[in-house]
Design goal:
single chain, 335 residues, alpha+beta, Structural Genomics Hypothetical 15.5 Kd Protein In mrcA-pckA Intergenic Region, Chain A, Pseudouridine synthase, 2 domains, nine-stranded mixed beta sheet, four-stranded antiparallel beta sheet, 8 helices, 22% strand, extended
């Protein structure tokens, strides 16, 4: 909590465009993390810089991963140039179509980072939008925050507005909420609701909690409703608003605070997993289920208590046998 409080103090809206006078006290940290915070790339890319021997600490070359460094006490250089921590920047970009969310494209296509002025800190996007999707995209140089915003366990809601072909019914919406299976696993929407009909198409609002590759387009295509337009309008508590297409603005202090609150709340209350006992009980219930459309056989009714079952009498043929040792009675008039 103290980390986020200090960070918010540094990101006050009145000071967003001013350079830092002093860096906050930074304790010892892993060297690759320090390099990433200096804007040299991802931690994996920074590890390559260390292994290749391009980093020195107080004049000594370091090539071992896991080395600790104290930035305020030690001098760290890359190819002889001193490194320093960059001030954290947080931007909201209204991504236009035709731009990629990648730092480099081998085919030379335009990226979202071409929309930012040169000479600034090394930026990267929080998640990705495909080339034809427009709308809200958070761009920052804070790798720690970006990693948490994209991690599924923090359950950050992403809100989209889409124009899809046809007029889906409730069964389609239920199917999308329950999920469909793809090569990568099960995809599903958190929520979907219709907004309005436009000719032979329908505008819907979709809420997601994860960001898989072209997830929304693939889900709707599977149900027979192709996506015609797709725009992200919300990310957690942040809304796109009236930011013009292709323009950006810095995030406000209350917007950052809302993101941090969601992260802390979801980190304190992780998503509950079913215990093994519940899973086994559920599997036992499903084993005894009959296929749909079949009826269970009627149970035989037990005999009521207090009444004995009637036993059929044995059939006898001819005269009944006379018991042994029984004297015959004399006939009347016999002497």
């Amino acid at each position: 909590m103290l980390y986020w409080t200090r960070l918010l103090q540094r990101c006050d809206s009145s000071e967003m465009t001013k350079p830092d006078q002093e860096h906050p006290t930074v304790p010892g940290m892993r060297l690759q993390r320090f390099l990433a915070q200096c804007g040299l790339g991802s931690r994996r890319e920074c590890e390559e810089l260390i292994v290749t021997g391009r980093i020195t600490i107080d004049g000594k070359t370091v090539s071992k991963l896991g080395t600790n460094v104290k930035p305020l006490e030690q001098k760290v250089t890359l190819d002889g140039e001193k490194l320093k921590l960059e001030r954290k920047k947080y931007y909201l970009l209204n991504k236009p179509p035709g731009f990629l969310c990648t730092s480099k494209d081998p085919q030379g296509r335009r990226t979202v980072f071409d929309l930012f002025p040169e000479g600034g800190p090394r930026l990267f996007s929080v998640g990705r939008l495909d080339e034809n999707t427009t709308g809200l995209l958070i761009v920052t140089n804070d790798g720690n925050l970006a990693q948490k915003l994209t991690h599924p366990k923090y359950r950050i809601h992403r809100i989209y507005k889409a124009q899809i072909a046809g007029h889906p019914d409730r069964e389609v919406f239920t199917q999308l909420k329950e999920g469909l299976f793809f090569t990568e696993g099960k995809f599903k929407v958190y929520d979907i609701r219709p907004i309005k009909k436009q000719g032979r198409s329908t505008w819907v609002e979709i809420t997601m909690t994860e960001g898989q590759n072209r997830e929304i387009r693939r889900l709707l295509a599977r149900t027979g409703h192709k996506v015609m337009k797709l725009e992200r309008i919300g990310f957690g508590p942040i809304r796109l608003g009236r930011v013009p297409m292709g323009q950006f603005r810095e995030l406000r202090r209350e917007e950052l605070g809302g993101l941090f609150q969601i992260i802390e709340r979801n980190q304190a209350s992780p998503k509950r997993k079913k215990p093994a006992s519940e899973k086994s009980a559920a599997s036992k219930k499903t084993i005894g289920k009959l296929p749909s459309g079949t009826r269970k056989p009627a149970k035989k009714s037990a005999a009521p208590q207090g009444k004995r079952k009637s036993v059929p009498k044995k059939k006898t043929s001819g005269r009944p046998k006379r018991a042994k040792n029984v004297k015959k009675k004399p006939r009347r008039g016999a002497r």
